[in-house]
Structures
1.
Amino acid sequence: MTSITERAAVRPRSKHDWLLLLLKARTLVALLLVLAFFSFAAPNFLSTANAILISKHVAINAFLAIGLTFVIITGGIDLSVGSVVGLTGMIAGWLVLNGIDIGFGWSIQFNTLEIAAIVCLAGILVGGINGILITRFNVAPFIATLGMLYVARGAALLFSEGRTFPNLNGNPDYGSDSFPLIGTGNFLGLPVMIWMLIAVTMGAAYIANRTPLGRHIYATGGNERGAALSGVRVARVKMFVYMFSGLMAAIVGLIIASQLRAAHPATGEFFELNAIAAAVLGGTSMSGGRGRIIGTIIGAFVIGILSDGLVMMGVSSFWQMVVKGLVIIAAVVIDQAQSRLQARVALAQEVTQSR
Amino acid sequence: MSAARGHATHPIGLSIRRAVKVYPGTVALKNVDFDIRMGAVNVLVGENGAGKSTLMKVIAGVESLTEGEITLDGRKVAFRSKDDAVANGIGIVFQELNLFPDMTVGENVFIAREPLRFGLSIDHKTVGERTRALMQRLEQDIDPDTPLGRLRIGQQQIVEIAKALAQDARILILDEPTSALSAAEVEVLFRIIDELKAQGVGIVYISHRLEELIRVGDYITVLRDGEITGSRTMEGVDIPWIVQAMIGGKSKDFSQTQAHEFGREVFRAEDITLPKAGGGFTVDRLSLSVRAGEIVGLYGLMGAGRSEFLECIMAQHPDSSGHFFMDGKEMRERHVAGRIARGIALVPEDRKRDGLIQIMSVRENITLSSLAQFATGFHLSLRKEAARAAEFIKRMTVKVASPDNPISSLSGGNQQKVVIGKALMTGPKVLLMDEPSRGIDIGAKAEIYQKMRTLAAEGIAIIFVTSDLEEVLALSDRIIVMANGRLSGEFGPDADPARVIAAASPAKPANKNKEIAL
């Protein structure tokens, strides 16, 4: 009885199967469409210089989106990343300019590597606080990270009384003169930040696909109760994803402070929304359990190319927002259509089986 | 099939013909014919998973039939939603209460049908008055303005009945209405039923308490594995007849015991107590021990605390007290992972909710508890994982074309085999199985019983929970009966079915309970 269904499941290429395949690859299709459209419609779109420029814009969003992908796969959300970008940027600026004052007229100064490490730890710490609120105190992720959004932004403003830390050129005496290179340096013809993005993407994809932790992240989002009963340490998994998301925000904070050679406390406002959009566009399901790092990267590129391309075409920023919003909604509508189609195909198979 | 056809005194109000209902994974109804006679109590009985609830959901418009037709007063109908069924005079009181604890009794009774003033604002006065009138009719002293959550479960059930009555139901379906009622409340309910019958209301009454059915019923229909196995008037029906129709002659294929010696005690629970929200205990000072290779059947009615006991073993209830010992050493781990590491594995009752990650593949599900076996450091060897998954899929005889197919594409029986495979991959010494044969077809059941026998012969201790009398009698080396959270009886493999049932009944008068309790 069962073997019939299973054979039916393997029997390939009905009309439905093609449609499903097309729907599954929708982000890639969207990417190809925007690429084709802008190479045709926007002048100078297809040039190496432009490609690198767009990539740099995309990278900022992509880091955050990778962090959020993990969080969303577990069924949570992290609204605080934009504020954490601002906060960690300010920490970086402070460390470059002032070091840590230990009193008696002494201060500790750091080299670039140490600054980067401290800033990353700060991001992880903020993510850890989110994680503790969510796992230990049972605060809904939306609320916990919404609170953190305000706290982190306020802290960033408190750092400088709302002023900008300017001229973050570093000091050769302390070994921090290489600080601006994080965001502006090149290595083998590509910007350092793109290399960082490649490394982080590969690392995240590795975690997702090739480690028990990755499997546990998907299981937690797919069915938290079931995962817990199977021996998955759900609380630990959640701690990890929020800390990882904090780390991603810290990296972005570093890059922006380094790129601009200045740290402004308002940096990163609304970044969380762009990052969520990229993850969702890349096929991450807001209800958890589903999503791929590579999909998120493609999603980030779709959004990035869309906004840069529209700018190059001279479309007003008001229309850009409308278009971006429509694309995100369309992505989710298609996602729902795909699930429905999949469910219908599955049920049709069950009915055949019952005969 | 139907001995009760054509009773002029009780006209048929609603009838279902050739009903088939397919769920992903199971066929819940197979060619079912069912009549509801007006002015009479139509009793529906069958084991858990026999299809009673599905049949009622179809009548109440919650689910629609895959095939078959429903006739109401001689005309064909198809209920598209619950509202549709309600508009046609069908009311249902579900086994699981569908109430809102933070709203008042009145608001609950009139939920989604609030009487309005000028079509805008809720007419609280009418809500209060009509609810008070209903409560008087039900002989209950419940204030319409009390928040529902403050009522006892039994009173909440009365509110649910009031809700159905408020909709002027001509057909009233009561799904296990007495499971949470006290003896006095049951008497009230029976009086209400008599009154409704006199008014010509057709009542469908579902219950596991057989004496109750015989007392209250006029017609009886028995379901087994989605098929009707008996349908007649209540005249001359006795408990043996019902039991016979419910569990059949020799329908299920129980494999023979594989003779083997039991080893020493591997697992012991001492004084496990789990307090219930709102007073009382879900599990009440339960102690038991299991030896290697022994199959212990934990029998009882729904709500006896069996599943909760297993959950306590798996560290799911932090507020439970008592001690567990594994090989004589106490288990103090507070995580499932720790308990699994000590050699305990659970096959949960609700496959869908607790057992499987529906959106993952067969392979990912079956290895989920054992990923550490394939990892060096943090690197997961997909090759090792695939090999082990394939091995267990073969061992459990899961019928699937590829291990990478989604788990949801499998039938219920094969899904259950994956859940058991997942538990076995952790290499357990004690296997806990909660309703291992629920919702799967007969063939798969036989395979799972066979598997349990083999595992026991290999020296694994098994504690399994079931509501299926035949199953517990045929499979267990020892039967432990629970009622109201307590151990209410312990029997050998050749126990007398009647005594097992008696021990499981949460006897209504408190003194009877004490007799049975040890």
Note: Residues 1-7, 508-518 of chain B have pLDDT under 50 and may be disordered.
2.
Amino acid sequence: MRTMVELTDVNKYYGENHVVKNLNLSINEGEFLTMLGPSGCGKTTTLRMIAGFEQSSGGSIKVEGINVEDKEPYERDVNTVFQSYALFPHKNVFDNIAFGLKMKKVPKAEIGKRVNEMLAMIQLEGFERRMPAQLSGGQRQRVAIARALINNPKVLLLDEPLGALDLKLRKQMQIELKRLQKKLGITFIYVTHDQEEALTMSDRIAVMKDGVLEQLAAPDEIYERPRTKFVADFIGESNVFDATVALKRNGVMTLQTEPGAILAGEGDFTVGEMVHVSVRPEKIKFSERTSEGFELVGLVKEHIYVGSVIKSIVVLPDGHEIKINRLAGDYLPPVASVAHLYWEIEHAVVMHSKANEIYSMIDNIDWGGQNE
Amino acid sequence: MNEPNPQRKTVRRRIKKMLPVISTVSPVGIWLLVLIAIPLIYVLVLSFLSRSKDGNVEFAFTLTNYTKLLNPDYIQIYLTSILIAFFSTVICILLSFPFAYHMANGSQRKKTIMMLLVIIPFWTNSLIRLYGWKTLLGNEGVLNKFLLWTGLINEPLQIMFTVPSIILGMVYTLLPFMILPVYATIEKLDRTLLEAACDLGAKRVKAFLQVTLPLTAPGIFAGSIMVFIPSLGYFFVSDLMGGGNTMLIGNLIKNQFYTAQNWPLGASLSIVLIILTLVFVRIYTLIGGDLDDLGVA
């Protein structure tokens, strides 16, 4: 697999604000990569640096192995689909789509041919003479995509392109976009804050927070094996426990949490280390009796029936609320009864904790020998 | 018992409902009626009346005032006037666009300072400000004195009382009326559109011609109306800066009312000027201009 876009130690400052921090990211040819994160996490800024609208404050950005840092947006083989679409309001659909080719002085006949191909692809034949104001949101969206794709970019950058559409249209466009990307084989870099959108469409997801890349992995890995507490929390629903590694034996770790001991698969952790443990709601099971190694006992607060799934909430002695999703037909203790909780050890994801780093930093501080 | 008639009741209720509207709108309405509508109708009527031998207005319908406007001497004045107005407008556009562009794209602080630069001159009467140019550019003015002193020239340059000096006066007086609407449209311009143009291969100049210019054209046109039309009529600029050597349509109208005592002819000239303005405004709305932007100054 060839690397298409490579970001190395990319930083971006706005004055004092450090919005992108030492970002390293390499994107393969033909890949659908999504940058996912809450607003202000630096994902759009990163996209704009690849497009050339923002200058990075340090590091290098390469497209096909060539450094593009000093190139103007129009000199880069990338095109952008803007969040607001940015269609030219004074030009009709045809002229909007043809804009890039006209700038490249492509012969008129060829422009006509290629615009018509694009119109066929986005299923807007017969709309050539319409002005953007006369189009619906979804139609405008498709024109914006066609306007970018007609230039045959190596990479298409999409900045929350579906944000302005209603839910149903958004779902439909997600599938259409994914299909289009597969068909054309163009590298897509897609920015969104919608985790479901990211999981549906991407080959890989780059989860960002506060300018830092938290995790870069395929959707299933992001979901099943989140590497940080933030990722576990942000992608799907999750129950996160703060715990300390108490025991490691035969590939099983016993972890001490405030409400009691729990089990997880063994990993790269030392006894005594502070960790986060994430367990998805659908992985937690109810039990009538204590399960071996689990001391989680709580009060069943409520069951909510949502069709095929029953969402339950259990309150632990420390006040922590645990979300549990069970299928209809599974064992369910009645509301207000005491329930024991457990899970298969491979379903608990253990993550290093920032708190642990901080404590070990304090341990290693040289206090200057005043105590001697 | 005398029950009030139900119909009268609804009328009274309706009046009661309208009371807030009537009380708030009527002062402005009366103002517009007395100071604008009635005088305009008066001028319109006047333009169809005759002038008696002793200079009074005679109530006899005639079209001669309008046919007289085709007098070759007058046509010469229209042409000069339009030419001066045209150049004033073009120069205003060329000066305003970069100014407004920097103002719209500048920091808040820069914006405030530049806006003040535009507005502060309004605090002084334009007549007085025009007199200032005389001290600067007159034969005995600062510039000429300086040039004579340096020995670059032997006799004073005739700068004042020429057509260029009238254009200078027009531009100086009317520049803010161009800057403000142009600024309003540039400010409204979506910057993402320029990024999109750049992304799609347009270099700076192309992006300007393809995106910025067409989308700010309504502002430029609005400003042009507000500069061009007054330029035809600002007789005091021609009087002060042109020394009475050049007649504008405005001077002509003024002369009919004062010197020549031919009010009907002056009125017909005014009507033509008003119709011309309305035609321009109509073109402006046809090309997609917003009437509210015209009122920005």
Note: Chain B touches chain A through 17 residues (CB under 8 Å).
